[in-house]
Amino acid sequence: MIILVNPRATRPENRRFPLSVMAIGAALPSDVNWKIVDGNLPGIDAFSVIAGHIEQAAAEGDPVRSIAMTVMPGPQLVSAVPLAKAIKQRYPDIPMIWGGNFGSLYPQPVLNAPYVDWVVQGQGEETFLELLEAIAGRRDPKTVAGIAFRQEDGSHWIGPERVWKGPGELPAPPYHRIDVGQYLRPTILGHRSGVYQASIGCPYGCNFCGVISVFGRREKVQQPERTAEHLRYLVQHHGMDSVHFYDNNFFLNEAHAQEVARTMKPLGLRWWCEARVDALCRFSDATWRALREAGLFMVFCGAESGSDEVLERMNKGITTEQILMTAAKTREHGIIPEFSFIFGDPERPEQEMENTFSFIRRLKAINPDMELISYFFTPTPQRRQTYGGVDAHAGTPDTLEEWIEPEWVAWMTHEDPRLPWFAQKLRTRAQDFDLVLKSRFPSVHDRKTRDWGKLLGKAAAWWRWRQEIYDDPRLLRQIRRFARITPDDSQAYGHLRPASAPKPRRSPRMVLTG
Questions:
Q1: Where is the Radical SAM core domain (predicted)?
Q2: For the chain, how many structural domains are there in total?
Q3: What is the value of pTM for the model shown?
Q4: Average pLDDT of the chain?
Protein backbone atom coordinates (compact mmCIF):
# COMPACT_ATOMS: atom_id res chain seq x y z
CA MET A 1 0.00 0.00 0.00
CA ILE A 2 1.15 3.52 -0.87
CA ILE A 3 -0.49 6.58 0.69
CA LEU A 4 -0.37 9.77 -1.40
CA VAL A 5 -1.05 12.91 0.60
CA ASN A 6 -2.12 16.34 -0.58
CA PRO A 7 -1.73 18.47 2.58
CA ARG A 8 -4.17 21.29 3.15
CA ALA A 9 -3.37 24.33 1.01
CA THR A 10 -6.66 26.21 0.92
CA ARG A 11 -10.11 26.38 2.45
CA PRO A 12 -12.37 23.40 1.67
CA GLU A 13 -14.73 25.54 -0.43
CA ASN A 14 -11.78 26.40 -2.70
CA ARG A 15 -10.55 22.84 -3.23
CA ARG A 16 -9.57 21.55 -6.66
CA PHE A 17 -8.47 18.22 -8.16
CA PRO A 18 -5.26 17.02 -6.42
CA LEU A 19 -3.59 16.59 -9.79
CA SER A 20 -0.04 16.03 -8.52
CA VAL A 21 -0.81 13.01 -6.34
CA MET A 22 -3.30 11.74 -8.91
CA ALA A 23 -0.46 11.68 -11.45
CA ILE A 24 1.78 9.69 -9.12
CA GLY A 25 -0.97 7.17 -8.44
CA ALA A 26 -1.69 6.75 -12.13
CA ALA A 27 1.97 5.91 -12.77
CA LEU A 28 2.07 3.09 -10.19
CA PRO A 29 1.91 -0.53 -11.45
CA SER A 30 -1.54 -2.09 -11.50
CA ASP A 31 -0.62 -4.54 -8.71
CA VAL A 32 0.23 -1.72 -6.28
CA ASN A 33 -2.57 -0.59 -4.00
CA TRP A 34 -2.68 3.16 -3.33
CA LYS A 35 -4.94 5.75 -1.75
CA ILE A 36 -5.15 9.55 -1.89
CA VAL A 37 -5.66 11.60 1.27
CA ASP A 38 -6.60 15.17 0.42
CA GLY A 39 -6.35 17.59 3.33
CA ASN A 40 -8.45 20.16 1.45
CA LEU A 41 -11.67 18.16 1.70
CA PRO A 42 -14.30 19.47 4.13
CA GLY A 43 -14.24 18.06 7.64
CA ILE A 44 -11.20 15.88 7.09
CA ASP A 45 -8.66 15.05 9.80
CA ALA A 46 -5.80 14.02 7.54
CA PHE A 47 -3.73 12.40 10.30
CA SER A 48 -6.64 10.22 11.47
CA VAL A 49 -7.46 9.16 7.93
CA ILE A 50 -3.84 8.27 7.23
CA ALA A 51 -3.54 6.36 10.51
CA GLY A 52 -6.73 4.47 9.65
CA HIS A 53 -5.34 3.46 6.26
CA ILE A 54 -2.09 2.30 7.88
CA GLU A 55 -3.86 0.15 10.46
CA GLN A 56 -6.28 -1.31 7.92
CA ALA A 57 -3.52 -2.10 5.43
CA ALA A 58 -1.50 -3.88 8.12
CA ALA A 59 -4.54 -5.94 9.12
CA GLU A 60 -5.14 -6.93 5.49
CA GLY A 61 -1.55 -8.05 4.93
CA ASP A 62 -0.60 -5.19 2.60
CA PRO A 63 1.39 -2.88 4.92
CA VAL A 64 2.04 0.70 3.90
CA ARG A 65 5.38 0.86 2.10
CA SER A 66 5.69 4.64 2.03
CA ILE A 67 3.82 7.88 2.57
CA ALA A 68 4.37 10.49 -0.12
CA MET A 69 3.39 14.15 0.23
CA THR A 70 3.29 16.85 -2.39
CA VAL A 71 4.37 20.15 -0.82
CA MET A 72 4.15 23.61 -2.35
CA PRO A 73 5.66 26.71 -0.69
CA GLY A 74 3.34 28.72 1.54
CA PRO A 75 0.17 27.46 3.26
CA GLN A 76 0.65 23.88 2.10
CA LEU A 77 4.08 23.76 3.74
CA VAL A 78 2.49 25.05 6.95
CA SER A 79 0.11 22.08 6.90
CA ALA A 80 2.66 19.52 5.75
CA VAL A 81 5.27 20.04 8.48
CA PRO A 82 3.15 19.17 11.57
CA LEU A 83 1.38 16.42 9.65
CA ALA A 84 4.64 14.77 8.61
CA LYS A 85 6.05 15.10 12.12
CA ALA A 86 2.98 13.50 13.69
CA ILE A 87 2.98 10.60 11.23
CA LYS A 88 6.68 9.95 11.69
CA GLN A 89 6.36 10.04 15.45
CA ARG A 90 3.66 7.36 15.45
CA TYR A 91 5.01 5.31 12.52
CA PRO A 92 8.78 5.85 12.51
CA ASP A 93 9.52 2.88 10.24
CA ILE A 94 7.38 4.03 7.32
CA PRO A 95 9.47 6.01 4.78
CA MET A 96 8.32 9.60 4.41
CA ILE A 97 8.77 11.04 0.90
CA TRP A 98 8.29 14.67 -0.08
CA GLY A 99 7.74 15.92 -3.61
CA GLY A 100 6.49 19.21 -4.99
CA ASN A 101 8.06 22.59 -5.61
CA PHE A 102 9.27 23.38 -2.10
CA GLY A 103 11.67 20.46 -1.92
CA SER A 104 12.80 21.10 -5.48
CA LEU A 105 13.67 24.72 -4.67
CA TYR A 106 14.90 24.24 -1.10
CA PRO A 107 16.07 20.63 -0.59
CA GLN A 108 18.48 21.41 2.26
CA PRO A 109 15.94 22.41 4.95
CA VAL A 110 13.77 19.45 4.00
CA LEU A 111 16.70 17.08 4.41
CA ASN A 112 17.50 18.72 7.74
CA ALA A 113 14.10 17.51 8.99
CA PRO A 114 14.42 14.08 10.67
CA TYR A 115 10.82 13.26 9.80
CA VAL A 116 11.44 13.41 6.02
CA ASP A 117 13.49 10.56 4.55
CA TRP A 118 13.49 11.27 0.81
CA VAL A 119 12.92 14.25 -1.49
CA VAL A 120 11.71 13.86 -5.06
CA GLN A 121 12.87 16.85 -7.11
CA GLY A 122 11.16 17.92 -10.32
CA GLN A 123 8.79 15.58 -12.11
CA GLY A 124 7.94 12.65 -9.89
CA GLU A 125 6.16 9.89 -11.82
CA GLU A 126 9.17 7.83 -12.92
CA THR A 127 11.40 8.99 -10.07
CA PHE A 128 8.89 7.71 -7.51
CA LEU A 129 8.77 4.25 -9.08
CA GLU A 130 12.56 3.95 -9.04
CA LEU A 131 12.72 5.31 -5.48
CA LEU A 132 10.36 2.57 -4.32
CA GLU A 133 12.80 0.04 -5.76
CA ALA A 134 15.64 1.69 -3.80
CA ILE A 135 13.61 1.71 -0.57
CA ALA A 136 12.93 -1.99 -1.07
CA GLY A 137 16.69 -2.63 -1.31
CA ARG A 138 16.62 -3.64 -4.95
CA ARG A 139 18.50 -0.60 -6.21
CA ASP A 140 21.24 1.80 -5.15
CA PRO A 141 19.46 5.12 -4.42
CA LYS A 142 22.40 7.00 -5.91
CA THR A 143 21.43 5.60 -9.31
CA VAL A 144 17.98 7.23 -9.12
CA ALA A 145 17.87 10.56 -10.92
CA GLY A 146 15.76 13.27 -9.32
CA ILE A 147 16.04 12.34 -5.63
CA ALA A 148 17.78 13.76 -2.57
CA PHE A 149 18.35 12.07 0.79
CA ARG A 150 20.46 12.06 3.96
CA GLN A 151 23.42 9.72 3.88
CA GLU A 152 24.51 7.66 6.87
CA ASP A 153 27.02 10.31 7.94
CA GLY A 154 24.27 12.98 7.88
CA SER A 155 25.48 14.67 4.70
CA HIS A 156 23.02 15.37 1.91
CA TRP A 157 23.00 13.56 -1.41
CA ILE A 158 21.46 15.63 -4.21
CA GLY A 159 21.11 13.38 -7.23
CA PRO A 160 21.32 14.33 -10.91
CA GLU A 161 18.32 15.92 -12.58
CA ARG A 162 15.87 13.61 -14.34
CA VAL A 163 14.98 14.08 -17.98
CA TRP A 164 11.26 14.46 -17.68
CA LYS A 165 8.30 13.63 -19.90
CA GLY A 166 5.31 15.57 -21.15
CA PRO A 167 1.72 14.82 -20.10
CA GLY A 168 1.09 13.07 -23.40
CA GLU A 169 3.66 10.41 -22.48
CA LEU A 170 2.09 9.69 -19.09
CA PRO A 171 -1.12 7.93 -18.00
CA ALA A 172 -4.42 9.79 -18.05
CA PRO A 173 -5.59 11.39 -14.78
CA PRO A 174 -7.29 8.67 -12.69
CA TYR A 175 -10.58 10.48 -12.08
CA HIS A 176 -12.14 7.16 -11.01
CA ARG A 177 -9.97 7.24 -7.87
CA ILE A 178 -11.48 10.47 -6.50
CA ASP A 179 -14.99 11.79 -5.90
CA VAL A 180 -15.01 14.15 -8.90
CA GLY A 181 -18.21 15.89 -7.85
CA GLN A 182 -16.58 17.10 -4.62
CA TYR A 183 -14.05 19.08 -6.64
CA LEU A 184 -16.30 20.81 -9.19
CA ARG A 185 -16.85 24.12 -7.43
CA PRO A 186 -18.42 27.46 -8.42
CA THR A 187 -16.02 30.10 -9.76
CA ILE A 188 -16.35 33.14 -12.02
CA LEU A 189 -16.04 30.68 -14.90
CA GLY A 190 -19.07 28.55 -14.07
CA HIS A 191 -21.05 26.57 -11.52
CA ARG A 192 -18.97 23.37 -11.81
CA SER A 193 -15.39 24.41 -12.50
CA GLY A 194 -12.50 21.99 -12.72
CA VAL A 195 -8.77 22.24 -13.32
CA TYR A 196 -6.44 20.62 -15.84
CA GLN A 197 -2.81 20.72 -16.95
CA ALA A 198 -1.96 20.02 -20.57
CA SER A 199 1.75 20.87 -20.52
CA ILE A 200 4.76 20.92 -18.23
CA GLY A 201 7.49 23.54 -18.06
CA CYS A 202 8.10 26.79 -19.92
CA PRO A 203 10.66 27.54 -22.67
CA TYR A 204 11.32 31.11 -21.55
CA GLY A 205 14.06 32.40 -19.26
CA CYS A 206 12.46 34.86 -16.81
CA ASN A 207 15.03 35.12 -14.01
CA PHE A 208 12.54 35.53 -11.16
CA CYS A 209 10.36 32.48 -11.86
CA GLY A 210 10.30 29.24 -9.87
CA VAL A 211 9.12 27.21 -12.88
CA ILE A 212 12.49 27.68 -14.57
CA SER A 213 14.25 26.68 -11.36
CA VAL A 214 12.42 23.36 -11.21
CA PHE A 215 12.14 22.40 -14.87
CA GLY A 216 14.65 24.49 -16.79
CA ARG A 217 13.83 26.11 -20.12
CA ARG A 218 11.79 23.28 -21.56
CA GLU A 219 8.12 22.74 -22.23
CA LYS A 220 6.34 19.59 -23.29
CA VAL A 221 2.73 19.78 -24.44
CA GLN A 222 0.30 16.99 -25.12
CA GLN A 223 -1.86 17.05 -28.23
CA PRO A 224 -5.02 19.18 -27.90
CA GLU A 225 -7.09 16.15 -28.94
CA ARG A 226 -5.97 14.26 -25.84
CA THR A 227 -6.73 17.22 -23.62
CA ALA A 228 -10.20 17.45 -25.14
CA GLU A 229 -10.73 13.73 -24.64
CA HIS A 230 -10.07 14.01 -20.89
CA LEU A 231 -12.20 17.13 -20.54
CA ARG A 232 -15.03 15.55 -22.53
CA TYR A 233 -15.20 12.74 -19.97
CA LEU A 234 -15.60 15.29 -17.17
CA VAL A 235 -18.28 17.16 -19.12
CA GLN A 236 -20.30 14.11 -20.09
CA HIS A 237 -20.01 12.10 -16.87
CA HIS A 238 -19.74 14.80 -14.22
CA GLY A 239 -21.32 17.93 -15.69
CA MET A 240 -18.19 20.10 -15.61
CA ASP A 241 -18.99 23.43 -17.28
CA SER A 242 -15.70 25.32 -17.03
CA VAL A 243 -12.00 24.73 -16.58
CA HIS A 244 -8.94 26.53 -15.25
CA PHE A 245 -5.76 25.42 -17.05
CA TYR A 246 -2.67 25.20 -14.86
CA ASP A 247 -0.19 25.42 -17.75
CA ASN A 248 2.50 28.05 -17.36
CA ASN A 249 2.37 28.76 -21.08
CA PHE A 250 -0.79 27.42 -22.70
CA PHE A 251 -0.24 28.39 -26.35
CA LEU A 252 2.95 27.30 -28.09
CA ASN A 253 2.23 29.36 -31.20
CA GLU A 254 -0.70 30.45 -33.36
CA ALA A 255 -1.10 27.08 -35.08
CA HIS A 256 -1.32 25.39 -31.69
CA ALA A 257 -3.84 28.00 -30.48
CA GLN A 258 -6.01 27.32 -33.52
CA GLU A 259 -5.94 23.58 -32.80
CA VAL A 260 -6.83 24.22 -29.17
CA ALA A 261 -9.81 26.33 -30.28
CA ARG A 262 -10.95 23.62 -32.71
CA THR A 263 -10.90 20.87 -30.11
CA MET A 264 -12.29 22.95 -27.24
CA LYS A 265 -15.28 24.46 -29.04
CA PRO A 266 -17.49 21.31 -29.10
CA LEU A 267 -17.09 20.92 -25.33
CA GLY A 268 -19.03 24.10 -24.55
CA LEU A 269 -16.70 24.99 -21.67
CA ARG A 270 -15.74 28.45 -20.46
CA TRP A 271 -12.05 28.58 -19.60
CA TRP A 272 -9.06 30.49 -18.20
CA CYS A 273 -5.44 30.07 -19.24
CA GLU A 274 -2.02 31.70 -19.01
CA ALA A 275 -0.26 32.95 -22.12
CA ARG A 276 2.61 35.13 -23.27
CA VAL A 277 1.87 38.63 -24.57
CA ASP A 278 4.48 38.28 -27.33
CA ALA A 279 2.56 35.25 -28.63
CA LEU A 280 -0.90 36.75 -28.20
CA CYS A 281 -0.16 40.04 -29.94
CA ARG A 282 0.89 38.11 -33.06
CA PHE A 283 -2.40 36.17 -33.32
CA SER A 284 -4.65 37.06 -36.22
CA ASP A 285 -8.17 38.33 -35.62
CA ALA A 286 -9.47 34.99 -36.92
CA THR A 287 -7.54 33.14 -34.20
CA TRP A 288 -8.79 35.52 -31.50
CA ARG A 289 -12.37 34.98 -32.67
CA ALA A 290 -11.88 31.22 -32.71
CA LEU A 291 -10.56 31.25 -29.14
CA ARG A 292 -13.45 33.40 -27.96
CA GLU A 293 -15.98 31.14 -29.64
CA ALA A 294 -14.23 28.11 -28.11
CA GLY A 295 -14.91 29.49 -24.62
CA LEU A 296 -11.81 31.49 -23.68
CA PHE A 297 -13.13 33.88 -21.05
CA MET A 298 -10.01 35.18 -19.35
CA VAL A 299 -6.29 35.08 -20.12
CA PHE A 300 -3.52 35.69 -17.59
CA CYS A 301 -0.33 37.35 -18.82
CA GLY A 302 2.86 38.10 -16.93
CA ALA A 303 3.44 41.77 -17.72
CA GLU A 304 5.60 42.38 -14.61
CA SER A 305 6.81 45.93 -15.39
CA GLY A 306 5.99 49.09 -17.29
CA SER A 307 9.64 49.59 -18.25
CA ASP A 308 11.38 47.96 -21.21
CA GLU A 309 14.69 48.30 -19.39
CA VAL A 310 13.39 46.38 -16.38
CA LEU A 311 11.76 43.75 -18.58
CA GLU A 312 15.14 43.22 -20.20
CA ARG A 313 16.82 42.84 -16.80
CA MET A 314 14.13 40.29 -15.91
CA ASN A 315 15.00 38.41 -19.11
CA LYS A 316 11.27 38.52 -19.75
CA GLY A 317 11.52 38.59 -23.53
CA ILE A 318 8.59 40.96 -24.06
CA THR A 319 8.10 44.71 -24.55
CA THR A 320 5.68 47.23 -23.11
CA GLU A 321 4.32 47.79 -26.61
CA GLN A 322 3.35 44.11 -26.84
CA ILE A 323 1.57 44.36 -23.48
CA LEU A 324 -0.43 47.35 -24.72
CA MET A 325 -1.26 45.55 -27.97
CA THR A 326 -2.52 42.52 -26.05
CA ALA A 327 -4.74 44.74 -23.90
CA ALA A 328 -6.24 46.21 -27.07
CA LYS A 329 -6.76 42.80 -28.68
CA THR A 330 -8.50 41.36 -25.65
CA ARG A 331 -10.87 44.33 -25.53
CA GLU A 332 -11.63 44.01 -29.23
CA HIS A 333 -12.52 40.34 -28.88
CA GLY A 334 -14.32 40.42 -25.52
CA ILE A 335 -11.78 38.45 -23.50
CA ILE A 336 -10.80 39.66 -20.03
CA PRO A 337 -7.03 40.07 -19.56
CA GLU A 338 -5.29 39.59 -16.23
CA PHE A 339 -1.89 41.27 -16.08
CA SER A 340 0.53 40.56 -13.25
CA PHE A 341 3.05 43.16 -12.07
CA ILE A 342 5.97 42.87 -9.64
CA PHE A 343 6.77 45.59 -7.13
CA GLY A 344 10.14 45.63 -5.37
CA ASP A 345 12.81 46.14 -8.03
CA PRO A 346 16.18 45.69 -6.25
CA GLU A 347 17.88 48.54 -8.11
CA ARG A 348 15.34 51.39 -8.22
CA PRO A 349 12.29 50.23 -6.25
CA GLU A 350 10.49 53.58 -5.91
CA GLN A 351 11.13 54.80 -9.45
CA GLU A 352 10.15 51.46 -10.95
CA MET A 353 6.97 51.27 -8.87
CA GLU A 354 5.81 54.76 -9.89
CA ASN A 355 6.58 53.99 -13.52
CA THR A 356 4.53 50.80 -13.30
CA PHE A 357 1.62 52.72 -11.75
CA SER A 358 1.60 54.98 -14.80
CA PHE A 359 1.77 52.04 -17.16
CA ILE A 360 -1.13 50.27 -15.45
CA ARG A 361 -3.18 53.44 -15.92
CA ARG A 362 -2.40 53.28 -19.65
CA LEU A 363 -3.59 49.67 -19.74
CA LYS A 364 -6.81 50.58 -17.94
CA ALA A 365 -7.44 53.32 -20.49
CA ILE A 366 -7.01 50.83 -23.33
CA ASN A 367 -9.05 48.06 -21.71
CA PRO A 368 -11.10 49.05 -18.62
CA ASP A 369 -11.91 45.36 -18.02
CA MET A 370 -8.24 44.56 -17.43
CA GLU A 371 -7.66 42.81 -14.10
CA LEU A 372 -4.57 43.65 -12.02
CA ILE A 373 -2.64 40.95 -10.18
CA SER A 374 0.15 42.61 -8.20
CA TYR A 375 2.68 41.07 -5.86
CA PHE A 376 5.99 41.84 -4.20
CA PHE A 377 9.22 40.48 -5.59
CA THR A 378 10.50 37.50 -3.62
CA PRO A 379 13.94 36.26 -4.71
CA THR A 380 13.51 32.67 -5.91
CA PRO A 381 16.50 30.34 -6.47
CA GLN A 382 17.49 30.27 -10.14
CA ARG A 383 19.71 28.09 -12.27
CA ARG A 384 21.54 31.22 -13.29
CA GLN A 385 21.63 34.71 -11.82
CA THR A 386 18.46 35.89 -10.08
CA TYR A 387 16.72 39.10 -11.16
CA GLY A 388 18.37 42.10 -9.55
CA GLY A 389 21.62 40.26 -8.89
CA VAL A 390 20.27 38.88 -5.61
CA ASP A 391 21.56 35.83 -3.78
CA ALA A 392 18.19 34.10 -3.37
CA HIS A 393 19.41 31.65 -0.71
CA ALA A 394 21.12 34.16 1.57
CA GLY A 395 19.30 34.53 4.86
CA THR A 396 16.62 31.93 4.13
CA PRO A 397 15.85 29.36 6.87
CA ASP A 398 17.76 26.13 7.37
CA THR A 399 14.83 24.35 9.04
CA LEU A 400 11.23 23.66 8.09
CA GLU A 401 10.10 24.91 11.50
CA GLU A 402 11.38 28.38 10.68
CA TRP A 403 9.99 28.27 7.14
CA ILE A 404 6.45 27.89 8.52
CA GLU A 405 6.65 30.93 10.76
CA PRO A 406 4.31 33.73 9.61
CA GLU A 407 7.02 36.00 8.23
CA TRP A 408 8.34 33.26 5.96
CA VAL A 409 4.84 32.29 4.82
CA ALA A 410 4.44 35.96 3.86
CA TRP A 411 7.73 35.63 2.02
CA MET A 412 6.72 32.51 0.08
CA THR A 413 3.34 33.93 -0.94
CA HIS A 414 4.82 37.29 -2.06
CA GLU A 415 2.51 38.92 0.46
CA ASP A 416 5.03 40.80 2.56
CA PRO A 417 8.68 39.86 1.94
CA ARG A 418 10.93 41.97 4.15
CA LEU A 419 13.57 43.07 1.67
CA PRO A 420 16.27 45.56 2.66
CA TRP A 421 15.79 47.67 -0.46
CA PHE A 422 11.98 47.79 -0.33
CA ALA A 423 10.86 49.94 2.59
CA GLN A 424 7.54 49.51 4.38
CA LYS A 425 6.32 52.87 3.04
CA LEU A 426 6.75 51.57 -0.52
CA ARG A 427 4.86 48.35 0.25
CA THR A 428 2.08 50.43 1.79
CA ARG A 429 1.94 52.72 -1.25
CA ALA A 430 1.65 49.73 -3.59
CA GLN A 431 -1.19 48.32 -1.48
CA ASP A 432 -2.96 51.70 -1.46
CA PHE A 433 -2.66 51.95 -5.24
CA ASP A 434 -4.17 48.47 -5.58
CA LEU A 435 -7.12 49.45 -3.35
CA VAL A 436 -7.82 52.66 -5.26
CA LEU A 437 -7.72 50.86 -8.61
CA LYS A 438 -9.93 47.98 -7.50
CA SER A 439 -12.40 50.36 -5.88
CA ARG A 440 -12.65 52.45 -9.03
CA PHE A 441 -12.80 49.33 -11.22
CA PRO A 442 -14.36 46.47 -9.19
CA SER A 443 -12.81 43.10 -10.00
CA VAL A 444 -14.85 40.47 -11.80
CA HIS A 445 -13.48 38.08 -9.17
CA ASP A 446 -15.12 40.03 -6.35
CA ARG A 447 -18.34 38.25 -5.45
CA LYS A 448 -17.96 38.95 -1.75
CA THR A 449 -18.69 42.70 -1.80
CA ARG A 450 -22.29 43.92 -1.77
CA ASP A 451 -23.44 45.77 -4.89
CA TRP A 452 -24.00 48.99 -2.95
CA GLY A 453 -20.42 48.77 -1.68
CA LYS A 454 -19.06 48.45 -5.19
CA LEU A 455 -21.07 51.46 -6.38
CA LEU A 456 -20.06 53.53 -3.40
CA GLY A 457 -16.42 52.50 -3.77
CA LYS A 458 -16.42 53.44 -7.46
CA ALA A 459 -17.78 56.88 -6.65
CA ALA A 460 -15.43 57.44 -3.72
CA ALA A 461 -12.38 56.38 -5.76
CA TRP A 462 -13.24 58.51 -8.81
CA TRP A 463 -11.44 61.65 -7.66
CA ARG A 464 -8.40 59.77 -6.32
CA TRP A 465 -7.98 57.83 -9.57
CA ARG A 466 -8.44 60.93 -11.71
CA GLN A 467 -5.91 62.95 -9.67
CA GLU A 468 -3.50 60.01 -9.21
CA ILE A 469 -3.73 60.28 -5.42
CA TYR A 470 -3.31 56.91 -3.74
CA ASP A 471 -1.94 57.57 -0.24
CA ASP A 472 -3.94 56.50 2.81
CA PRO A 473 -7.39 55.79 1.25
CA ARG A 474 -9.13 55.48 4.62
CA LEU A 475 -12.64 55.96 3.26
CA LEU A 476 -12.15 53.20 0.68
CA ARG A 477 -10.93 50.84 3.39
CA GLN A 478 -14.00 51.57 5.49
CA ILE A 479 -16.35 51.04 2.56
CA ARG A 480 -14.69 47.75 1.75
CA ARG A 481 -14.86 46.57 5.37
CA PHE A 482 -18.54 47.37 5.83
CA ALA A 483 -19.65 46.20 2.39
CA ARG A 484 -18.08 42.77 2.55
CA ILE A 485 -20.57 39.89 2.62
CA THR A 486 -17.86 37.77 4.20
CA PRO A 487 -14.37 38.80 5.36
CA ASP A 488 -11.56 38.79 2.82
CA ASP A 489 -10.62 35.18 2.05
CA SER A 490 -6.88 35.09 2.58
CA GLN A 491 -6.84 31.43 1.53
CA ALA A 492 -8.66 31.96 -1.77
CA TYR A 493 -7.73 29.36 -4.33
CA GLY A 494 -5.14 30.52 -6.86
CA HIS A 495 -3.87 33.44 -4.79
CA LEU A 496 -3.07 31.89 -1.41
CA ARG A 497 -2.14 34.37 1.28
CA PRO A 498 -1.54 34.06 5.03
CA ALA A 499 -4.21 35.42 7.32
CA SER A 500 -1.70 37.78 8.87
CA ALA A 501 1.96 38.51 8.56
CA PRO A 502 3.52 40.04 11.66
CA LYS A 503 6.86 41.74 11.38
CA PRO A 504 9.71 39.24 11.29
CA ARG A 505 12.11 38.90 14.17
CA ARG A 506 14.90 39.25 11.66
CA SER A 507 15.05 40.38 8.05
CA PRO A 508 16.36 38.14 5.28
CA ARG A 509 20.02 38.84 4.61
CA MET A 510 19.63 39.29 0.88
CA VAL A 511 22.94 39.79 -0.90
CA LEU A 512 23.36 41.63 -4.20
CA THR A 513 25.82 39.64 -6.26
CA GLY A 514 26.39 42.27 -8.93
A1: 188-423
A2: 2
A3: 0.92
A4: 92
